[in-house]
Amino acid sequence: MIDSDSVKNLAGHPFDRRDFLKVLGWGGAAAALSGCGNTSIEDGKETVVSYVEAKDYVIPGVAVYFNSTCAQCDAGCSITGKIREGRVLKLEGNPESPINKGRLCGLGQAAVQHHYNPDRVREPLLRNGDKGEAISWEKAYALINEKLAGVKGEEIALVSGDVSGHQKVLLGNYMDSLGSKNHFVYEAVSPAVVRAANLKFYGVEMPRYRIDKAKVVLSFGADFLGTWVSPVHFAQQYAAFRKGVDGQRGVLIQAESKMTLTGANADRWLAVRPGTEGILALGIINALGVATGDVAELVKDYDKVRVSRETGVEPSNIDKIAAILKLRSPSLVLVGSAAEGYQHGLQNAAAINLLNQVLGNVGKTIEAPVSVPFPQMAPAKGKTAALKDLNDDLAAGKYKVLFNVATNPVFTAPASYKFRDNMAKAGFKVAFAHYLDETALQADLVLPLDSEMEDWGTHVPEYLADTVQINIQQPLMERLHANTRGFGDILLALVKQRRAEEYKAFDDYYGYLRSAVLQNKAALGGAGSDDDTFWNDTLSNGIVKLSGASGALSLKVDVSGLKLPTPKEIDEQYPMNLIPAVTSNLRDGRHTNQPWIQESPDPLTTIVWDSWVEMHPKMALQLGIVEGDIVKVTSKTGSVSAQVYLFPGIHPDAVSIPIGRGHDAMGRYAKGYGVNPFEIMDAVFESATGELAMHETRVNITKTGQRVIVVKDEGPAGGRQMGRKIAARMSTDQVDLSKEV
Amino acid sequence: MKDIREDIAWAKINQDVMKSLENPRPLYWVILFFAVLAFGIGIGCEVYQYQMGMGVANLDNPHVWGLYIATFIFWIGMSHSGTLLSAILHLMHADWRKPIYRFAEAMTTFSLMTAGLFVMVHLGRLWQFYYAVPYPNERWVWPNFQSPLLWDAMAIFTYLSSSVLFLFVGMIPDLAIARDNMQSGWRRKLYTLLALGWEGTDRQWRNFRVTYLTIACFLIPLAVSVHSIVASDFGMSQQPGWHVTSFPPYFVAGALYSGCAAIITLFIILRYVFKFEEYMTLPILKKIVRLTFAIAMVWTYLNCVEFASVWYSHDAVSKDLLIQKMTGPYAPFWWAMIFCGSIVPLIFAIKRFQTNIPVLFATSLLLNLGMWLERWMIVSPTFSHGYYPWTWDHDQWPSMIQWGIVFGSFGWFTLLFMVFCKMFPSVSMYEVKEMVYHRSLHLKQNGTVEQGVH
Amino acid sequence: MSVTNLLDNWAAVRHFHPIDDKPHDPYKWAMAIDLDACIGCNACAVACYAENNLPVVGREKFKHGQVMHWMRIERYWDEDGRDYPDQGFQFLPMMCQQCEAAPCETVCPVGATNHTQDGLNSQIYNRCIGSRYCSANCPFKVRYFNWYDYPTTENVWPAEMNYQLNPDVTVRGKGVMEKCTFCVQRLRAAEVTAKGEGRIVREGEVQTACQQSCPTGAISFGNLVDPESRVHKQWQAQQVDLDKDMQEKNQKEGGSDLRGYRILEELRSYPSVMYLERVRESAV
Questions:
Q1: Does the complex come out with an ipTM higher than 0.85?
Q2: What whole-number distance in Å separates Cα of residue B372 and Cα of residue B265?
Q3: A 718-737: CB under 8 A from B
Q4: How far apart are alpha carbons B174 and B170 in whole angstroms?
Q5: pLDDT score at C8
Q6: pLDDT 10s digits, A293-324
Q7: Domains (ranges, CATH) in chain C?
Q8: C105 CA to chain B: closest CA distance, Å?
Q9: Where are the domains of chain A?
Q10: Which CATH code fits B10-446?
Q11: Half-sphere exposure of C93 (CA within 13 A, CB side)
Q12: How far, in Å, are A128, A132, A403, B113 from residue A445 at the CA level?
């Protein structure tokens, strides 16, 4: 089971007690499974060996715990893996991490199913007609070298998701060595417009939000409990916010067109006509009546009658919200994906940010983030605009070689991009992949990646909860399949092809990482301790915490450019707004092949294993549609058919389809379940940032005449309790929270 | 009209009944064929279910019981009429029962055997069924005596063994006749063995009478208790629609009702197939029909009592369930039950239909359907519409496997019953003789009795 | 196997219902779930899948209602016909309530579900014959039956997936009933450790999987007998008494200003899980 690389590593690092953390990745499982020999777990050839001579840290029946970092999303939660007899069983949150403080969301926990997934790619695959042919790594590397020969730097492109830490450094070096500047950082779901708005307004892309300090949170579509930026962290802040101070419980108001998980937890949820979030924000500023100067001038026309007419929010609610915001300070106003997904997304976000300034929240509940002392390790943040650029370049035939690092643009690009066809124009396509997903299937060469539980790495989260933290990712167990490789290892091998001399000291990525960390030992807080101790401590903690310099926000209140369009007239042909919903389970669909994710009911609709079209019962009544009807949702770009779910938490002008399902590849748990809303998404862009305006697609709904039973957890009683006291509720004037433990 | 011709010669009785062991009408074989076919289908479904797990029955959480339990109650109910006819009416000296009690008793035994199968079919781990039996074991583990299901197991077992004994004991004199009438072959050996050396001596008759009477007395409380205990499965639970005090008498009434209906059906079939027109006469049928009508009205009354008490009790959950039964997805079945159980038997009140065989045959089948629906309407709606609205489940529909096994159980029952009637005298010869004897006493005095070997 | 043994065992098994003269000692595991903190994110449910080897049944079986989630998140909205759920939804994590007088226990014909001395409603898989009477009699419908043999069902634990299974928890075959155990494997480990050290399990020493993962800390779990435990303090502060089927605080005119309640308490099953009502702001 010990593959050639690890044999080399073992030879280079003779086993000793102090090194046990590292060896766990190889030797630990060796003890558990075979002791010696050349089988892998995959082969099923492991022999039973006596535990009489087990390694000193492997006690049969007793779990050991190792810290690492969750890679299911980019929030950077630290995890603790429970390992028994060399196998990782369960992931818990690492209590030492300020981000998740020992907690972990369902998606994070499902990472073990990514690791053990039966549909992972296990061998390097070379395209041979329609099939992939397994080849050796030597051959794969040689092939890349061969294909790169004589190709100019500008003819090479690489697309990846968010990347940070030493992988980012090494990736940058590799691109440098190729002479290419075409690194596209692409995330299908990212708060890019909000970042741009924040940068303009606060001088930083992502300030530190202090929900826990706020007495009122007014969120415009920011699903901070479910999907937004760092949900586990925000959920903990939320818990503190709800507890409040002296029994003064925090009040959450959510304004959005389609209810998110956060909206479902609001004290007041406002159904806003799609795209009018900014108008509502200005209306609230107007109602507050405390703005002066330019701002007052800007909002003076936004009286509540007009705002109510345009947004669909009742005037009395605008008054109530203004009143409570005035009364309870500090508050916090958040802007999320529902507000940014329009052509005027940046304007929306700016108007909403303005509300924070008017309320005086900046500096109180919106703090400056700490800056990362190693900028080269700070995360490269994905944008949807990157994919647009890449696609344009590909269409123009600019690239001869395309590297794709575990992103899936064929799945997440709007159909009108014709990404699949454009990708084919690149001569040689290399995919670093976990699964044979839609994009990997288009590649000429597929390089199988280690799972996050087998790989080494460092990560710096974009949203830092407290101090700067560098999260360590380390193997929690032996490599499951003999022929997968870590991302860093592959990069190192590739970069060695170009700059052999520079990297010859490093046998593998582990060696590189160790030496890179130890070089900066002093800066990382290890001054005074010897290398081995520091390194082992680092691995043991799973986090390196640094005291980064806390910058200041440079507030720029400039309302001169702020202009919100009046809501569009109803388009007769396409009367509804399509809201592609990001759900907390599925996110952008990269984890759909994890069965726990598929079977975990959507928190709002409780639907499993399928896509649905969410529709307000009123609108459904108008159209004569009932739950389970298969409807055809048609946009200018195309159409998809899916089952209807009647859901009161959506504006009647909108319909919503979740993102993440509708795979036609990837694996047994993902393929063939549901539909992909990207297929009907119009290519409309946010006018200032060029980001894809995901909420701008307009659609019409037609019945197909078919009807199915919606597969969901709730029964025919739906959300009703039939007068029984099951999930009970009190209002704040009935309850005395100060008596609570 | 007379129950039976008083002037039948005893030899003719022997002859007629023994003929039923030889050459029935062709319809017998047709019935037997379909019974075997249905039973085969049931076996196939059960094998599949055993292999795959209970999920293939399309039961779910929390709808964990379905047709198996409903049909189980149905078969238990069927068993009651045999006891009613042979034991209760025996004690009441209603001698019109005599030509028909034998097959009714057989029906009791076989429907109990069928019901027992459903307990097995229903178990998730049927290979461990013996855990429910208090057998000596090394781990000192007892079953749970608090569970009505355990009472069930015990009651059914006792009832079944008593019924078999009762059936057998009552048959001994007839077996001796069969033995004496058989020339040779395995059947003679079988009858010889089973007749236990019966010679018809005074002493034997005396002992026989005492034994028979004792078992009859023993059986009556058993019959009442067994269905009361089945009722406890529901009544002792805490679920809406089940937690009803009147359930035991309601179940017993329902049991007698469906049993009587089944007797009418089988009466008509046997009468034709085995050419028993002389013994299973229309006046007897008329008596059963009247009895059935009376029981139907009792059942209807008890139904009303149940609804009224739910209405009166202010138990919102039970009330909700009752309304749901009447108006929800189960409504067609529920109303069909009311129709078949309370409206259809009104036909029996009309005199000219009381002896109309086609009408009675159709009606009795409808009554049985109604009683089967009743059991289903007791079991399923409570699962679909219980205390906890989140887990309501109105889409539960039994799978073909479940239907197949239910269907197969009818095949199994018919098979057993038909084979029994062909193997053993299904009309009690000695008791018919007694009946004829008593009724012909006055004829004898007039000297008009047919000459025969008495 | 004697009648004496029967009576002894019976007495031992059945005396753990809440009665004054036989208090729980030294453990009574109980839970409190703050519905105001619960955001309905499903992390607890996934944690339960991971910890307790719950099978993923797939779409077809889910459709037939054969899902095995020991912990389910229910979602309710207002029934008063308003256009939007403008006060949000109400989420409710529901699992076995570990009733003290559990309706499921008395009806099991083979005694496969029992009360343990530390106040759990235990399920003995080996003993279960699958009569499903327990589920039939459960008011909360939190018992889940193995309709199929999941370990051998295709794509439940294919290939390497079964390496994830927790060795401390049995993988259940077809035909047995299962349900939330309060992570009994964790409790037993903690109890044994504590016993070895001559003490009782300390507050915080043991967590259930759902509690551990909950991002908002909505779930607290511990020993109700231990006056130091958070659960004890919460139950006490909320004036919810395990032994009562009707809490005194609710008898007062105008109701209580405390949030603690137990679901379907009036059925006298004495659940061991207290819920704290969700709170909604009256000012907006």
A1: yes
A2: 15
A3: 720-724, 726
A4: 8
A5: 73
A6: 889 999 999 999 999 999 999 999 999 999 99
A7: 3-276 (3.30.70.20)
A8: 9
A9: 4-119+457-488+497-546, 125-189+377-448, 192-367, 576-707
A10: 1.20.1630.10
A11: 32
A12: 10, 8, 10, 67
